Structure formats: structure tokens, C-alpha cells
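Revision sheet: C-alpha cells.
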Amino acid sequence: MKNLVNIAIIGLGQIGIYLYNELRSKKKEIEKKTGKKINIVAISAKNRNKKRKFQIQKNIFFKKPLQIFRDKKIDVLFECIGLSDGISKKIVETALKNKIHVITPNKALIAKHGDSLAKLAEKNNVNLEFEASVGGGIPVLRTIKDGLATNKISKVVGILNGTSNYILTEMEKTKKSFKEVLLKSQKLGLAEANPKFDLDGSDVLSKVKILSSLAFKKQISLKKCLKEGIENIDLKDIEMAKNLNLRIKLLGITEIINNSLFERVHTSLVPNDNYIANIDGAMNAVILKGVPVGESVLQGEGAGPGPTSSALMSDLLSILRGNIKYPFGIPNNKRHKIKTYNEDLYENSLYLRLEVNDKPGVLSDLTKILAKYKISIQRLIQIPDKKNKKATIVIITHKCLEKNSISCINNLNKNKNVLKNPVLIRLFA
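Predicted:
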């Protein structure tokens, strides 16, 4: 690579702005560590005149990002828009075809199009780097690609969304409702104005798919899999978990079972003495299980422009040092498809919370429904509300098949004495 490296930044949201300031303030440090000088020659955003803490030079600003490729000589491009398709995909494809290194925190893009983009990068002998797409400032992808390259990884478990983890932690700590804590997290900038992807598990699922591909050296699976978020978690569940010496966490899990890939995202009840139960606030944590390394744990801040920018800068320094690498750690033609595990056959213990009419025969009806689907009760807790003639029933089950648990929930939901949609949380195993 030449001595002076021209850089373009596409997208000036929170991450793009933070990155721009980091690149400007750390120019000398970058040169000292890599022997390369950097020069920001192009920036693209929707509005040049939007209030920011810096002025954008007119000669480097482009409202239409694709124009950059015609007007500027670019060596490294940062894509910070964040869409899975459309302009984000077009920009990255164009850059790679033009032999430009690409760095992105865009997990949605990589999870959906990572295979085809990796093929393009490999064909044109440039890097496609996406360390910032998973785990914020935690170097989890580099750890898998480099540090654990000779290990056979069998399972990855992680708290991969700082927003959801913050909300669950704050509900437990403050005893405030989901809505109240969500509003607070939005004011703090931890949650977006529209936090849907953080709360419904979509954000975590994208990260799980990237982790799967890297950990198991396979193509990204585009098949649907189990995905649930935290929207239905109530203070009642938080308090009940505490009484049972458990904590509720939104987990992303991927593992190999019988040579098949099993990816899933859902809330889990984790014992207090488990390491991952004690990851609080906006922190992320990833547990990697492999041979011969055993169990490796990585932890750090997972939300916010600071940790994300840290990972982006790490990718940049790797490129500047001349490290041309396969995006997913091995040649693209060595990454094959993997069959998907049949989640119906997955066995797990369950936490069920039911709001019901408190009258004779109700409990008997409920236990009959559970028995119909071969779900046996390990523990039952009944909390009466005599004033309103209602009751909260919490059931901890023995292990049961996933397909039976879903069918059971659907049946319970139809029962006239069940007043609200039942809450199901899987026990972490």
C-alpha cells in the first residue's frame, strides 16, 4: 500500500461523526503505528448543513455517495449507513469492484450479503472488514479468525445487544416498568427513537449469523430460526426470577448439534452463579467453547459510538499494516453450506407465567393442557389476587420438546380462563 492513504466516510450518524473525529485527532498516532499517512478526501451524508461539532469542507462533501467513485481516488472506505440493502449494499459492492478496502459496522448487511461481498473482496484482493458489527469494542471476530484459528469451536453464547441488556438490568435495579426504562434508555442515547430491532431480537440474530459463519467456517445461513425479544418481559418476571435465584438475559446462541447448525435468539433464565448472568448494563459478553482451548470469555462495552469506532479503527490499522485477509478467515471456496438443525426437536426446561381467573377447576384445566403436550411440572407457584378474583401462576417445567411447548402456548392462549398471552422464558442450559 502507498504511503498516503485516501479515506472516504459514508454516513454521518453517531458512529460516522465519532469516527471522523477519531481519524482527525489520531492522525499522528496512526502514522506512528503503521508508517502510513491518512487523508480524509470524501464524506457523504444526507445534509451537509446539519448541526455538528465540526465543519465539513465543501470540496470533500458528497450528497450522492456513488459520485465519490467518479471524482475521488479512494483507498479505504467506511460504510456507516447501516442498511441491509439499497444504497449500503451498492456502495460496498462498488468499492470492492474498484479494489477499495471496505470497513463497516453494518451487521445487517454482512448477515444478509456477507458471502457474496466476501467473494468480491477476495476476487479483487482487498479487505472487507466488519469487526465492529459484533460486540462493539470487544475483538470477538478477530479472536475467532486469528487467536482461535486452529481451534474447533462447537458453541457460542453471548449477550450481544447493549440496549436490551441495559433495559433488563434497569428494570431489576429500579423496579420500573419496561416502558419507563425504555424511555430512559432513549434519552441516554442507548436506544434508537425506533428501537424495534434492538428489542425484538433482530439485531442479535444478525450478529449470531456472523458469529456462526466465522466460528464454524461455513456459509452464512439465511434460513429462519428461533427469534424472540424482550418486549413481553414484565416486572413480575424480573421479580420472580430474583426469587428463584435466576436472572433474565437476552441471549444469542449458536452451536453445532449432530453436524447441523442451531441458531437462536431468546430470553433465558440464567442461574445467578453463571458468569453471563452477571453482565449488566450496556455491556456485552461472548463465551466461546472449543477444542483444545476450552471456554474463552470476552467482555466489554457493546453499545455506543465509542466502542464501535474503536473496532473500526482497529480494522483500519490492520489494513494500513498490509494485512490482506479473507473476510471470514478462510478462502471463500472452502466455506460450504451447512444443514439447519430441526428446532422442533430441541429440548429445554421452561418458565411459564399465566394470568388467570381464580376459580375452581382452572388449575386442573391448565395441567391437563400441559400433560396433553407431554410437559411435566417441576415447580408451581400460585400468587392470588383475591380482590380481583385473579391469580398469577408460574410453572417451571422439566425438559420438553420445542414443538410441544409452542403448541401448548397456543392452546393455553385459547383458554377462556387465561386472561393474557402466556409468557414463556427458556431456562439456560
